[in-house]
Design brief:
The protein is 78% helix and 0% strand. It has 143 residues and is an all-alpha fold.
């Protein structure tokens, strides 16, 4: 049952990604793509601060003790969101999100295949290759 809840949570994350892309693209057309990205991060920062304040159980002081590459997530988040907002304004939500998902899956497979960034190794197999091919075909079907 717990695994089903995790899948549902990931599914909800995907739904929120598409909604965020649509909202960010619409906002980007009105105020500019980078400005839209900045605004989204400001609101996200405030929301995360409140969640951390009331529900956080970690230790933010550990931030200064982790390997520096662990801190790249924030910068990559900006790159991701800015490119998503820009692509939505040019090619639409469906195509943009489909391309994002394909990019995420291909990079995830590479990361797991080589055990990069502290992940467990998981070898690529025929099913994985077939999934990449079919996902790439889906991009052309969404267009």
């Amino acid at each position: 049952m717990k695994k089903v809840l995790v899948y549902l949570a990931a599914f909800a994350a995907g739904i929120s990604l598409s909604i965020e892309a649509a909202i960010g693209g619409a906002l980007g057309e009105k105020i500019g793509e980078l400005e839209s990205t900045y605004y989204i991060f400001i609101i996200g920062t405030m929301a995360t601060f409140l969640l951390t304040l009331f529900f956080g159980k970690g230790d933010l002081t550990q931030t200064f003790k982790v390997p520096k590459w662990n801190l790249l997530g924030g910068a990559l988040g900006v790159v991701y969101l800015a490119l998503l907002v820009i692509s939505v304004t040019l090619i639409g939500v469906g195509v943009s999100v489909t391309a994002v998902i394909i990019g995420q899956i291909i990079m995830s497979i590479i990361i797991e295949h080589f055990g990069l960034l502290g992940t467990a190794k998981k070898k690529v197999n025929r099913n994985t290759i077939a999934a990449i091919v079919l996902l790439t075909a889906s991009l052309f079907l969404v267009v």
